[in-house]
Design brief:
Blueprint (H helix, E strand, L loop, with lengths): L6 H14 L7 E7 L4 E7 L19 E3 L2 E6 L3 H8 L2 E8 L4 E12 L10 E3 L7 H11 L2 H6 L28 H13 E15 L6 E7 L5 E6 L2
Antiparallel strand pairs: 1-2, 1-5, 3-7, 4-8, 5-6, 6-8, 8-9, 9-10
The protein binds flavin mononucleotide.
């Protein structure tokens, strides 16, 4: 990929504006998949563009990289994991209230656990060095708070009937010296932990203010180029 599509800087600037305006909810987006009968939607946390370091203390042995792939993380025991395997087509909706703009992304979701050469064409890597999904997955895992890592080690399937059980919290400590039981939990969590990488094929940007709003769409063409179209709101 030579250039990133123009929706990327526009989306990033609007997100940054909301975050600077203290709207942390801007990172929460609705991710929809195909269920057996209904569309299935749920809130997930945007973890940034693949390969892009966002904060101090965020380390990776990968070389610095940029991409147009949006990432969130999940647990393979969650129903959405199987739904994505059955049909990777998704819609993701973001609402940035301080910027008064909605983004709808459409594309294919990729579940990443093992190292793979998939999607590497979406990256600009510094000096053409080797960049790996294995390191990226570990970077995202290490950034997660302990309670989220622990949630991927619970001994039940999220969404299944409780049958009298109570969901006791399984706590992982952030300490260096982990007790053996914590290590086991961490291993179980890491085993279930996946990146969900959103490869975008279509974007719809709607500015709701000032009225009557403004709207733009982007489509990926057969030749894999991006076409941008100004639309009526
Ligand atoms: C604020 C918020 C953020 C969430 N972030 C994620 C996330 O990043 N990944 C995820 O798998 N689930 C996340 N969840 C939980 C999902 O919304 C959902 O309840 C859970 O993943 C089960 O979804 P499923 O049954 O459709 O697989 C989040 C929930 C909330 C309320």
């Amino acid at each position: 990929m030579t250039n990133f599509p123009s929706w990327k800087p526009r989306f990033s600037q609007n997100l940054e504006h909301d975050l600077k305006s203290k709207n942390e909810d801007a990172l929460n987006f609705t991710f929809s998949t195909f269920g057996k009968k209904y569309p299935e939607s749920r809130i997930c946390v945007f973890r940034g563009f693949a390969g892009e370091i966002r904060s101090k203390g965020d380390h990776s042995s990968n070389p610095p990289a940029k991409s147009d792939l949006l990432v969130f993380t999940t647990d393979s025991k969650m129903p959405k994991y199987e739904e994505i395997k059955q049909n990777p087509n998704f819609t993701a909706v973001f609402w940035f209230s301080k910027s008064a703009v909605q983004y709808r992304f459409y594309g294919k979701a990729h579940l990443i656990k093992e190292d793979t050469e998939d999607l590497l064409a979406h990256f600009h890597v510094e000096d053409g060095k080797k960049w790996s999904w294995k390191e990226e997955r570990l970077r995202q895992w290490n950034k997660l708070p302990a309670w989220i890592r622990g949630s991927m080690a619970v001994p039940w399937i999220p969404g299944e009937k409780a049958n009298g059980r109570t969901p006791d919290l399984i706590e992982l400590k952030d300490s260096e010296a982990k007790a053996p039981s914590e290590k086991l939990l961490e291993e179980e969590g890491l085993n279930r932990f996946h990146l969900v990488v959103m490869e975008i094929e279509k974007v719809d940007e709607l500015h709701s203010q000032p009225a009557p709003g403004r709207r733009r769409k982007w489509f990926i063409t057969e030749g894999k180029d991006w076409e941008e179209i100004a639309c009526m709101p």
